[in-house]
Amino acid sequence: MSTSRRLFVCTHQKSGVGEDVAKALKKELKHQGLKKQVVDGQKLRTQVQTCDCLDLCRNCKKGPGAALIAYPEGTVYGNVRPADAAELVTEHVGRGKVLKRLRVEG
């Protein structure tokens, strides 16, 4: 059986940071070999998807980053920048741990 994980990245910001974050996450998933993995005997595929609005602007207005929600966990991250992609993929996708410095209450 195969299951999916999705990382939804908001691209509503005028600066285009959301698109850059999505590209960086896709690159890191491939680089770290975590786009497709087997966890507890189940195939798990992680996809990065962009969306117009996650209604989380209050978490990103003061910083240069984008909002992101990881499903099915429902973990909300704010002010995510492209430079955060490697750590986010390693910790959240690879180790199943919430990256506390970027986590926000949704």
TrEMBL record:
Organism domain of life: Bacteria
Matching CDD domains: TRX_Fd_family (cd02980)
Protein name, per record: (2Fe-2S) ferredoxin domain-containing protein
